[in-house]
Amino acid sequence: MAKPQILMPAPLAPDVVAALDERFTLHRLWEQDDRDAFLAEVGPAIVGMAATTLAGRINAAWLDRLPALEIIASFGVGYDNVDAKAAAAQGVIVTNTPGVLDDEVADLAVGLLLATLRRIPQADAFVRAGQWPAGAFPLSPTLRGRRIGIIGLGAIGKAIARRLEAFGVAIAYHGRSRQEGVAYRYHDTPVALAKASDVVIAIVPGNSGTRHLIDAAVLEALGREGVLINVARGSVVDEAALVAALQDGIIGGAGLDVFEDEPHVLEALIAMPNVVLLPHIGSASVATRAAMGRLVVDNLVAWFDGRPALTPVPETAALNRR
């Protein structure tokens, strides 16, 4: 019996490639000199895809070239790299990799918050530059007494909140609606949350509904001592408004793991001493990335074994029947 044919537009980890190679006929698009000609040849036989953000956006034009496609297994909890609505319209199920990275991203978010407030990277640079003998490093702001606002109280948002409870800080949140059984105070707009907070942490999906959710009005409401932490998607923050807010002293600082035009970061942000910048490493540990890769494989294996996919995204969940 012929193996199902799977397309991998951009490379995933070697163990993911090896696992898919064993179970499927795997086509490595990134290795092809003429990708258009290759897709014209093999596209009609492709029934599954292992996708990553490195491949760019998988949209309706992509789907038109893969008429037999049944499933796209996307690497990452965010799946804004896939047009899930277009996929659903063509009967293609989309999966992501939730759950296995929640704790890792939450750990990173808290670490980024502490690094930003206590200026840990700047202090490290101070020591390495040999400046300590000439005088003490300047005093930093503190986490003590801070009011933390979380935009997006999903699984990762809740994991962040649980960790922050140990610091004895007040926690509130904003989301599309108030959640039952949640003790944290709810605010019905991002501006209202920012007004009631000294720190805003963004951890919402990146999509058309959340684009520039954190804009100039939110930053102004956060205030001069306020700090923004973004571990969501770069599109969630209006970067031009953020630069202006930092330059003009409208907010006190920012810690950013994601950017609007990754991997390119605005020079204005790089030049600011009150900003901590990370290269989108929220889930980037060996163990967590391995677990994410296994879930990509497991979703494809389940589907082609005649079982429902393990982690369908909401837009395509109704298609998850075998």
Describe this protein's structure.
The protein is an alpha/beta fold. The protein has two domains: 5-100 and 287-319, NAD(P)-binding Rossmann-like Domain (Rossmann fold, 3-Layer(aba) Sandwich), CATH 3.40.50; 102-277, NAD(P)-binding Rossmann-like Domain (Rossmann fold). The chain has helices at 14-23, 35-42, 60-64, 84-89, 102-118, 120-128, 155-165, 190-195, 216-222, 239-247, 267-270, 286-304, and strands at residues 5-8, 25-28, 46-51, 71-74, 93-95, 147-151, 170-174, 185-186, 199-202, 227-230, 253-256, 275-277. The strands form two sheets. It has a seven-stranded parallel sheet with strand order 8-7-6-9-10-11-12. Strands 2-1-3-4-5 form a five-stranded parallel sheet. Helix 9 links the parallel strand 9 (199-202) and strand 10. 42% of the residues are buried.
Helix content: 25-40%
User: Considering the protein shown, what is the CATH homologous superfamily of the largest domain?
Assistant: NAD(P)-binding Rossmann-like Domain
CATH structural architecture of the largest domain:
3-Layer(aba) Sandwich
> What topology, given as strand order, has the largest sheet?
8-7-6-9-10-11-12
| Main sheet attributes: strand count, strand direction, barrel closure | 7 strands, parallel
Shape summary: elongated
Q: Can you tell me the CATH topology of the largest domain?
A: Rossmann fold
Structure classification: alpha/beta
Radius of gyration of CA atoms, rounded to a whole number:
22 Å
Give the percentage of residues in beta strands. Answer: 5-15%
Name the assembly state.
single chain
Mean pLDDT: 96
Tell me the span between the first and last alpha carbons.
20 Å
Overall CATH class of the largest domain: Alpha Beta
Spans of at least 5 consecutive residues with low confidence: none
The count of β-strands is 12
Taken together, the total number of domains comes to: 2
SSE order: EHEHEHEHEHHEHEEHEHEHEHEH
| Tally of helical segments | 12
